Amino acid sequence: MTDPVLRPGSTVGIVGGGQLGRMSAVAAARLGFHAHILTPQADCPAAEVAHSLTVGAYDDDEALRRFADCVDVITFEFENVSAAGLKTLESLKPVRPSGSILAVSQDRIAEKSRLDAMGVAIAPWRNVASPADLAMALEALDYRCILKTTRFGYDGKGQFRVSAREDAAALEADLPYPMVAEGIVDFEREVSVMIARGVHGDVQCFDVTENQHRDGILDISLAPAHIMPELADHARQLAVSIAEGLDMVGLMGVEMFVAADGRLLVNEIAPRPHNSGHWTMNACLVDQFEMHIRAVVGLPLLPPIRHSDAVMKNLIGPQDMALCDTILKTPGQALHLYGKADARPGRKMGHVNMIFPKGALPGPFGLADALGVLAPASLSSK
Ligand SMILES: Nc1ncnc2c1ncn2[C@@H]1O[C@H](COP(=O)(O)OP(=O)(O)O)[C@@H](O)[C@H]1O
Ligand SMILES: [Mg+2]
């Protein structure tokens, strides 16, 4: 067996050049590794900070081979490489997490089937491949469901909400099948766990994060989540059992609903750094991106100790860009911009981490509180 541990100076191949690739590349460089990005777009967010690039499409076999040639290990920030592409990559270099895990997370049917098979509680769901399936699914889910495309959905895209019989009548005849229908969960809150698992099966979880979405896009994450310690333990154990059940090596975000009755239902998994883990960049000694690189290159996984409370707010184009000047002037706020030129509506342009002394994060925390109102100084002087 080849030694799974790579030494500094080795090259980590990252599939995808978005902000997650950018922040992973910085973490790799900090540990003395080269980051080499596969991206279809030479001027992507990761390009500015990476050691080198392969420019090519994710499904271009020749580009995948050129990319694999340049690297010692392969990981992802973009999950949607085709099955054939994953096979090509796996035939050439170690791929962490493995192609089979990517295949599960790419497809909501595969993901839900796998979670069901592992005995993980999820929302009730139905396979909807045709209008006939749709009629049955709506009936079974009592006309309260979210229809989601099985593949390529992100930030709430490809989703249609049905809250009543009338909504169903208004659905277009030509929905983008195949889809899944998911029963609407009346959740009390949404939480997530970032979990890292190393090449020797060692695991580490970050503190449970609480997430608030707006228009289907993550808006604010709070760390720690406002949940009882027992529930937080349970959430972490759930993430561990999923990572172990999938035999994952790398980093994975597990999104969960806390149902009104206090049960945890898993929403989805993402075997890569996750937006809800961005707070770790300023509130932990080892952040999610460093943990990702450590897991992938085989370095020890340290307990991800959180030294501060944190609120992360996404900066969504174009309106949130106006907040940058204030953030830059406010103590305790760390601005992270992704270098995207075009602030299109709904585009994630950056995020801000607001850092508070540990234990100081107040209870319910909304957008109005997020900027300026609760400057860390005013909290610590209380
Ligand atoms: N079954 C559901 N019940 C209630 N809310 C849901 C459900 N599915 C999704 N949502 C809401 O929509 C958000 C985005 O859905 P998700 O399935 O996570 O898709 P994406 O891949 O776009 O993140 C969730 O974080 C949650 O706020
Ligand atoms: Mg999600």
UniProtKB/TrEMBL annotation:
Keyword Ribosomal protein applies: no
Keyword set includes NAD: no
GO molecular function annotations of the record: 5-(carboxyamino)imidazole ribonucleotide synthase activity; ATP binding; metal ion binding; phosphoribosylaminoimidazole carboxylase activity
Signal peptide feature range: none
Enzyme Commission identifier(s): 6.3.4.18
Family classification: Belongs to the PurK/PurT family.
HAMAP family per UniProt: PurK
PANTHER family: PHOSPHORIBOSYLAMINOIMIDAZOLE CARBOXYLASE, PURINE BIOSYNTHESIS PROTEIN 6/7, PUR6/7
Function comment: Catalyzes the ATP-dependent conversion of 5-aminoimidazole ribonucleotide (AIR) and HCO(3)- to N5-carboxyaminoimidazole ribonucleotide (N5-CAIR). Catalyzes the ATP-dependent conversion of 5-aminoimidazole ribonucleotide (AIR) and HCO(3)(-) to N5-carboxyaminoimidazole ribonucleotide (N5-CAIR).
The protein's name in its UniProt record: N5-carboxyaminoimidazole ribonucleotide synthase
Organism: Neoasaia chiangmaiensis
Lineage: Bacteria, Pseudomonadati, Pseudomonadota, Alphaproteobacteria, Acetobacterales
This protein's encoding gene: purK
